[in-house]
Design goal:
Layout lengths: L2 H7 L2 H6 L1 E3 L3 E4 L5 E3 L4 E3 L2 E3 L1 H13 L2 H6 L3 H4 L3 H11 L4 H8 L4 H31 L24 H11 L15 H11 L9 E2 H9 L5 H10 L3 E3 L5 E4 L2
Length: about 250
């Protein structure tokens, strides 16, 4: 299972803490880092058991689960930029007066109105979640959709892909699987997303690639490796330094 699948399949409690527990390990939902059980891990001259070390990993790598989640694309959070800013300030422990001063909007009563609106959004989200959970128990014809990758720059109809569609498209364009070559670059965006996501399986999660290494790796997949590289960046799968000297998988 890919790290994005772990993320979208996690329970609310697991999302809040930022990791899931498996038989032999803990897995970070934010980046896929795996911490094995039964091992003592050192951090700043102190030794920690696996679960505590996972919490340290989240703090040191992602700052907090809140910061990671609120930094996700607005299509995934459902928050406007204004709501995002408000929530960040509330999370920092700012008073209504401090928030009003910092954002230079309305009055204290305006901020309280925004708090009420956010609570209303929370109630709606809980109700909708319960409805969808109940629907799962009855809707036997519902297709299994592939969840979008967490670093997607814009989530729209291109991401409405079922598991069956995904397998058909991969078979069509990558008949020998992820280790084989791409027959041709897909003409449709939905197909591109599926193929590009499959191509990312060739990269290591924490590896940093030079431009030459990236080009060599992509050239093994397709002759026009520059095209593939550009789309991997455009669709939010890869990130790079501004001068193009280093590339890595986005988390």
């Amino acid at each position: 299972m890919e790290k994005s699948d772990f993320f979208w399949n996690a329970s609310l409690a697991e999302l809040k803490r930022g990791y899931i527990q498996e038989k032999d390990s803990y897995i970070c939902l934010l980046c896929g880092e795996k911490i094995e059980k039964g091992i003592i891990y050192p951090h700043e001259s102190i030794l920690y058991e696996a679960e505590r070390y996972m919490r340290i990993h989240i703090e040191s790598t992602h700052q907090s689960v809140f910061e990671y989640l609120i930094g996700m694309d607005k299509k995934l959070t459902g928050l406007t930029d204004h709501q995002n800013h408000l929530l960040r300030l509330f999370y920092q422990g700012k008073s209504d007066k401090e928030v009003q001063n910092e954002m230079a909007i309305g009055s204290i009563s305006t901020i309280r109105h925004h708090r009420f609106a956010l609570k209303e959004k929370e109630r709606q989200a809980k109700t909708f979640l319960a409805i969808m959970e109940l629907l799962k128990e009855k809707d036997e014809y519902a297709p299994a959709f592939i969840p979008p990758h967490k670093t997607a720059k814009m989530v729209d109809d291109r991401y409405a892909v079922t598991e069956e569609e995904q397998q058909e498209i991969i078979k069509k364009f990558l008949p020998k699987g992820v280790s084989g070559r791409l027959k041709k670059f897909p003409p449709k965006e939905k197909q591109r997303l599926i193929v590009l996501r499959e191509i990312t399986k060739r990269f290591e999660n924490d590896a940093i690639y030079t431009e030459k290494e990236m080009n060599q790796l992509l050239n093994e997949i397709y002759d026009d490796y520059v095209l593939i590289r550009r789309y991997l960046i455009e669709y939010g799968f890869l990130d790079r330094k501004s001068d193009g000297s280093q590339y890595w998988l986005k988390k």
